[in-house]
Structure formats: C-alpha cells, structure tokens
Specification:
The complex is a heterodimer of chains A (244) and B (241). With 244 residues, chain A is an all-beta fold. Helix content of chain A is 0%, strand content 43%. In chain A, strand 13 and strand 14 form a beta hairpin. Chain A is elongated. Chain B contains one helix and 18 strands. In chain B, the strands form four sheets. An eight-stranded antiparallel beta sheet of chain B has the order 7-18-9-14-15-16-11-12, with no helix packed on it. Chain B has a four-stranded antiparallel beta sheet with strand order 8-17-10-13, with no helix packed on it. Chain B has a three-stranded antiparallel beta sheet with strand order 2-3-4, with no helix packed on it. The longest helix of chain B has 4 residues, at 54-57. The two termini of chain B are 26 Å apart. The chains are: A mainly beta (244), B mainly beta (241). At the A-B interface, strand 1, strand 3, strand 4, strand 9 and strand 10 of A face strand 1, strand 2, strand 3, strand 4 and strand 5 of B. Strand 3 (29-34) of chain A pairs parallel with strand 2 of chain B, so a sheet runs across the interface.
C-alpha cells in the first residue's frame, strides 16, 4: 500500500493514516508510537529541557489528563485535623479531594471547614456555611434529608454520623469543590462519604452532603476533622479539573 | 507527573500521547509539540479532512475530550459530540454557570441531525428528579419529586439566582449517545443557589432523563429558560467504550 504523505512538510509535522502516526524529522517520515502501541511498563519522570532540568511542563497540563494530580497520595497523620492547602491550585475550576481509609481514635462525626486566610483560621461562625445532607444506613429504612440554615451545625459542615473505631471502622470521602478560588460567585461543595457506624450499631452508612459558603471569598485551605479525638489512619490525594 | 514512556527507546524515536509529541534525544524524552486540539491532526492521506482517531486508540480509561468557557452573555452553548463516538458514557461537568435573569431554569436539548435542529416537541424527552433545599427543617423527605413525561427540554435544575453568588454546578453522564439503536439517557446531578428571594442552596437536583427517541444524539444544547447564560465552564470527559 502506498501512502500519500503531504508534500513539503515542516519539522515535527504529524500525519495520520490507517491508525498509524508519522512525524517528519526534517529528512524522513518516522513512525511515532502511540500510548497503546506498546506494553512496556517502565516510567520516567518528565521534565522540560535537557538532563537535570526540573521545570514543569506547565501550561497545557489540563489537556494531558482529565484529573491532574495536585497532591499525590499522602498519609493523613495523627492530629486533630487534616488541613489541605489549596492555594497552589488557582488554575483549577474543580478540585476533588479523595480521602480513603479515614480512621479515628474516638467514635465521632466527621466535619469539614474552610479557611480564607491561608489556614491561620478556619471559618466557624454561625452562618458561614449552609448545607443539606442526606443519610442512609443499613439498620433502618427511614433515611431523610437533613438541612439547616440557622442552627449550630451551620458553623460546621457535618458530613457524617459517628464513625466506628472498630477494626472495620473507617470512612471513605470524596469532596468536590467548585470554583474554590472564585471571589465573584459562591463556592459549592459536594461531599460523599460512606463509613461504618459507631461500635454500638456497627451499621453501614452513607452520607451525601452539599454545602455552600455564605460569601464569595477565596478558599485557601480545606479541613476535615473528627468532632472528638484524633485522626489515626488513612490517606488523601487531591486532583484538579480545569476548562481553560 | 509521570508518563509511561516506551522502555528502551532509540534516539529520535517519537511518542505521541494525548495530543503531545515527544522525541527521545538519546537521554530523555523531550516535548516537541503540543496539539491543544488533537483533531487538528488529519488522517486519510493528502487533502483529507478526516480527524485522526487517536483518542479512540490511545486510552481505555477516562480521557479529556474538550472544554469551553462562557465569556459573555450567550443564548446557548452547543456541544458537538459526534467526534466522540468511541466513548460511552460521556461525562460532562458544568462548573459555575451563571445566568442573567433571576429564578431561571438551566436546560438541555438534543440534536440528532448534527446540530441543524434541536428537538423541542412535547414528546421529545422524559425526566424525573428528586431534590431538597437547605431552607427546610431537619429530617424531611425530599420535597421535590419532579417528573415530566412530555417536556420540550431536559431540566438540569430550576430556579437559579442571578445574584453574584448564584451559580450552578452539574455533572451530566450521557449514556448511549452514539448508538442509533438506543435511546440516549442522562444521569444528572446539579446544585444551585436559589432565586434571590431565598438564596438557599438547592441540592441535589438528582435524577435521570432521556431523549425520548431511538436515535444517534449528535449535539447537546445548554441554555437558560429565559434570558442568557453569562458565565461558566464545561469540561467534557469520555469513558472509552
């Protein structure tokens, strides 16, 4: 089969035909391998430029992968809070915080708060949050929406009932934060959580939460914490999605 | 960021990955070109206008397909999904959608003729949603069970505020769009800030919809019930089918 390559190509011009890709190297058309064109498993950390160069590839990362890894999987630590700095991720329209195998040393609820000042303080005034929550658990068929605009839980975003401290007691959370850095529109957040209830019931539970900030401030930091005791296990990672 | 490059490359080997072209210089893989729009690469020989089918070949997971941002007041945003027939479902994220008018619905319609027309007859869609609001007392059933068997559009949410804080976020999963033998179905989840009279968060508007007919869905249209859209970003992802 003869292939009609384009005439007068420029260096690095790309040409596709019959599922194959050729690149003009200045002299000839060379085959360029595609991502699925091999079965090798070796990896290489990528940097722009020559050997030893550490400059990030930068501007078009959003086009590389659907969800860019902003924070690689990181151990939760054992403090009273898990604080995640979002200040470096202003390019992203949507941030996904994935928390897995969250464990506590005390059966307690899990809460979320955010900061506008770089993590020095986390908003805790009545009216700072407005939320809506739906919970379901395996021990009952009565699973309701629970919402609030004015009671004490407004100061917190309650994202789950008591998490067990049994061996099987852990929680998995996914938080989606829309436009966290916008100062013109209100940030909304979706948090889904599934967990084992406290040791008294030991039931499977799930909680879906949606909340908003009361202002249009730049969210610099996001906090998860148990309502009592300490975190004592698990890990988290942060991903970003951008449209521009 | 780590990319699984081919092991044991030879000097001047090329590697194409998600619209980026790398060349091995004997020591490292260097980025040579970035195709912000991989569709710019054509397939089929001299003079062809066919888009090379890289995206259907190079990934069997979730991949980025396209994105767009509303830069000013527009009556609608149309998305051509015909290049993405290799993906099912499509996963569309709408982030921070704002509207000019207050208390307005965010709506969607489908085209089956390449965007020439968008279906708008009473039998073209079906949908059902469940939703609630933060204005409600604790421990209540969902207050909104909305369903329509013959609407002229699909409702992604209802009653958005046009105040500064008003905006909508949605995830729309699109199943079976390229299949001419099946109805296209949508799984939709949206949250919004309600009209200026309340400004509470409405969440979720969660439910499903379909386009009412066995047909290949070629284009999606998003628009406000009245007035214009004036802000927001979408990101379209694809799950390789």
């Amino acid at each position: 089969m003869s292939i009609a390559f384009p005439p007068s190509p420029s260096l690095d011009d790309v040409f596709g035909h019959s599922g194959k890709v050729w690149v003009w190297d200045g002299t000839i058309w060379r085959i360029a391998r595609e991502a699925n064109d091999h079965t090798d498993t070796g990896t290489m950390t990528l940097a722009r430029g020559g050997t030893g160069e550490t400059t990030s590839l930068g501007i078009t990362d959003a086009l590389e992968l659907p969800w860019n890894v902003l924070v690689s999987p990181t151990t939760n630590g054992t403090g009273t809070t898990l604080d995640i700095d979002l200040t470096g991720f202003t390019a992203y329209d949507l941030i996904w915080i994935k928390v897995r195998d969250w464990q506590q040393d005390t059966a307690a609820s899990v809460y979320a708060r955010w900061s506008y000042d770089g993590g020095s303080t986390f908003r805790a005034t009545a009216g700072d949050y407005e939320y809506l929550r739906h919970t379901a658990q395996s021990s009952t068929t009565v699973n309701k929406f629970n919402s609030s605009t004015s009671d004490a839980r407004d100061t917190l975003a309650d994202i789950g009932g008591f998490v067990s401290i049994d061996a099987d007691g852990n929680a998995h959370l996914d938080a989606y934060i829309f436009n966290p850095h916008s100062t013109t529109i209100t940030t909304q957040c979706w948090v889904n959580m599934q967990f084992m209830g406290d040791s008294g019931t030991d039931t499977m539970q799930s909680s879906a939460n949606w909340f908003r900030q009361a202002s249009q401030d730049d969210i610099t930091d996001f906090r998860f914490y148990p309502s009592a005791g300490n975190i004592d296990g698990g890990w988290y990672a942060v991903y970003g999605l951008r449209g521009t | 960021m780590a990319i699984a490059f081919p092991v044991g490359p030879s000097t001047d080997d090329y590697y194409l990955y998600h619209g980026r072209l790398y060349k091995y210089d004997g020591a490292i893989w260097k980025l040579r070109r970035v195709f912000a729009d991989p569709a710019a690469i054509k397939e089929g020989g001299l003079g062809s206008t066919s888009v090379a089918n890289f995206k259907s070949d190079n990934n069997h997971g979730l991949v980025f397909l396209e994105s767009g941002t509303i830069g000013g007041a527009v009556s609608e945003v149309d998305i051509d999904i015909t290049p993405y027939t290799a993906y099912d479902p499509l996963e569309l994220w709408w982030i921070g959608v704002t509207q000019v008018d207050d208390n307005v619905h965010f709506l969607m319609r489908c085209s089956t003729d390449g965007g020439g027309t968008f279906n708008s007859s009473a039998s073209d869609y079906n949908w059902a949603f469940m939703h609630s609001s933060s204005a409600l007392a604790s421990q209540v059933d969902p207050v909104g069970i909305a369903a329509q068997s013959a609407p002229v559009s699909i409702e992604l949410l209802a009653g958005q505020s046009n105040l500064a804080q008003g905006n909508t976020n949605s995830r729309v999963m699109i199943f079976g769009a390229p299949d001419a033998a099946k109805i296209t179905r949508f799984e939709i989840m949206s949250t919004t800030i309600l009209a200026t009279s309340t400004t509470h968060i409405r969440a979720p508007q969660w439910g499903c919809a379909n386009n009412g007919a066995v047909n290949d869905t070629t284009d999606l249209r998003f628009y406000a019930g009245t007035g214009n859209l004036d802000g927001g970003t979408y990101v379209l992802l694809g799950h390789r089918s």
